[in-house]
Amino acid sequence: MGxxxxxxxxxxxxxxxxxxxxxxxxxxMAAIGVDGLHxxxxxxxxxxxxxxxxxxALFATGLRLDRPFGTASWAAVWRLLAxxxxxxxxxxxxFGVHAMGLPLGAAILxxxxxxxxxxxxxxxIGVGPPExxxxxxxxxxxxxxxxxxxxxxxxxxxxxxxxxxxxxxxxVEWLAADVLYAVPVGIAIxxxxxxxxxxxxxxxxxxxxxxxxxxxxxxxxxxxxxxxxAELAGAYGFLAAFAGGVAFRRYERSHDYNQRVHxxxxxVEKFGELSVILLIGSMLTLDGLAEPGLSGWLLIPVLLLAxxxxxxxxxxxxxxxxxxxxxxxxxxxxxxxxxxxYAAVAAGAGVLGDDARPVIWTVLACIVVSVVVHGxxxxxxxxxxxxx
Length: 388
Fold this sequence. Notes:
Layout: H1 14-31, H2 43-64, H3 75-98, H4 104-114, H5 119-122, H6 137-152, H7 154-165, H8 170-206, H9 219-232, H10 237-250, H11 256-283, H12 286-290, H13 293-315, H14 323-331, H15 337-349, H16 356-387
Helix pairs in contact: 1-11, 1-16, 2-6, 2-9, 2-10, 2-11, 2-15, 3-4, 3-6, 3-13, 4-7, 4-15, 4-16, 6-10, 6-14, 7-8, 8-9, 8-10, 9-10, 13-14, 13-16, 14-16, 15-16
């Protein structure tokens, strides 16, 4: 359980420990002749596991945010979503077409898979729990970005799938259903459901009609309900999960109930992180890591050292963040569970054809590298930023 403690108490992130354990498990299985999971053959299982983990993480991320909504107060988050994310997807797509030889649809899909900042792993350098919030702008920007861009990557995933499938007339359907409808409806369902559940739970607790023993578990039925309702409505459940967490926190934000709810959902979130990162590590094989080829492996440093930093610096130009804070946000574009989920969805769609293996394994390789480099650098850079 020591690895589940808060990031600031460790020299490196817990995800790095989990990844090492998963790789060790993969080596042991290979030595005794046991086949592990394959990201293409077992895509449905990977989709389910990562989906649960990320939904819980998104709700927990929303619970951490207490800053009032506003154009100015959330300016850094809006900039990262509206400018940095599309620039990242576009740059990866260009690299995919010209350097990796991918068709345009597969390249767009690869950009969508690798663009989101992961809410599970980014929690180590983001806003702290209720009553311990880190109101520094970089922490808030990363947390807000991670909470929203997993859901906002969905339209780009569908865009890549539509382009791959070919045909005509899909543009209007994509814009109407996957952008103009699914985004606002998902947020609305999550916000309404989270706020209503919090209002009901707090009133029942104040009247001793709800046992305090179950406070820590209240987030689980709440997030599963709003996520399910959003999916039934054809909207984005990821956005509903995040909006549900934010709205839950907005009701009686000073009530001690919030702290206990967050403690419960954080424990579940950490076990989800443990499960998925162990799973990723256990899937790694030498043959699989060779699938991206030279160009696929080259994309990883290009993304982490050039595409992500430059897109963030462009997005935050003229913002109130100083150069150290902008550099901090630019570096911590953590890739993780969200990218795995989208990779599993893409693999299960069956439209990538021969490009499936290099695309999916490039995503997995990028997740592994991100877990390592961001896991090692998170604590020292966070402390340095605090001192400065």
